[in-house]
């Protein structure tokens, strides 16, 4: 039997989100029904609800930072039981057969993963995300939230956590490495905590110094304002790795000049416009420019276990569902400290 649940949806691109109801599919053999407790607001929700990346499917229920409790399991479910504390991130399915799926890189599934919302499920129905009271997900795309993490501060880890953990690990952030995090927002602040816990020397590059005290408390060793041209002179040739979390295009030549020989700038921020770079800013010191998308399911579990072990949760501002539209405006004006999380009981 399908379940009707309350949700918040954008009825059309750029329209304010409003309360509505959606239907969740019947709990299948390998599905779990999750009572959503908290849902983070990622900047990607805003890009998509406003058709910033591509035309979306509406009505759209955003939300891919989901934390909740299992309330029902299908007959074939082996990994979860009723009462388990669980999370769901950006994807809810993939082909499971391609080279990438078999390697635990489901986010790069050759046949395209099924995104948590703004996509079509294997049942042919539109997928809907976490700004809702319940969700039904195949157990293979659900992760366990360790006991040491409260569900509200764990929710943002399902996207912001894995999107920063995966490239930090892949590009070997750790002792002896100088890592810069550009943008102290949702992704950036979690990235600082994780890079610090991995043992790297961490620098925040923010537009201004107004969040400097916070940045240092989060684990940064250094903090600089990118609005100050001296920053780029002083830090030239410094970093092994730059993790760029900014949602708008930057002056890439300026940021690349901050890398050492063989350094990498990894862009997890995904602007709506194409970006331009001059290739000489790479060739001079064999620098690399790259990007990375979330992380696989096993790596997401690894990230949650790592965060629990190191006492890492997101810094959150808990809001009620009717504050979502205002929260979107505040994220757009970089006025977030450091992730808005919806208390889904208020839907
Ligand atoms: P966010 O909370 O808005 O943080 C972005 C931060 O970037 C802001 O807080 C601000 O920090 C800085 N910033 C914003 N506009 C800027 C500008 N014009 N110039 C310079 N700095 C600026 O957003 P988020 O949720 O962390 O997401 C960031 C980006 O990552 C989005 O594009 C999102 O879609 C993308 N994303 C990608 C993935 C992936 O898998 N690759 C996953 C999740 C999200 P300061 O005030 O400190 O400068
Ligand atoms: Zn996200
Ligand atoms: Zn696949």
Question: What features would you describe in this structure?
Answer:
The chain is of the alpha/beta class and 347 residues long. Helices cover 24% and strands 26% of the residues. The chain has helices at 43-49, 99-102, 151-154, 160-170, 186-197, 212-218, 229-234, 252-256, 280-283, 297-309, 324-332; strands at residues 3-9, 18-24, 31-40, 66-73, 85-88, 91-93, 114-115, 134-138, 143-144, 178-182, 201-206, 222-225, 239-244, 259-267, 288-291, 316-319, 339-343. The strands form four sheets. Strands 3, 4, 5, 8, 9, 16 and 17 form a seven-stranded mixed beta sheet that branches. Strands 12-11-10-13-14-15 form a six-stranded parallel beta sheet, covered by helices on one side. Strands 1-2 form a two-stranded antiparallel ribbon. Helix 4 packs across helix 10. The longest helix is centred in the C-terminal third of the chain and has 13 residues, at 297-309. It is globular, with a radius of gyration of 20 Å. Bound molecules: NADP nicotinamide-adenine-dinucleotide phosphate (NAP) and zinc ion (2 copies). Residues 42, 44, 64, 159 line the site of one zinc ion.
Short description:
This protein is α/β, with parallel strands linked by helices and 347 residues long. Helix content is 24%, strand content 26%.
Separate helix tally: 11
The geometry reads as: globular
Determine the mean pLDDT: 98
Distance between the termini: 22 Å
Helix percentage: 10-25%
SSE topology string: EEEHEEEHEEEHHEHEHEHEHEHEHEHE
Structural class: alpha/beta
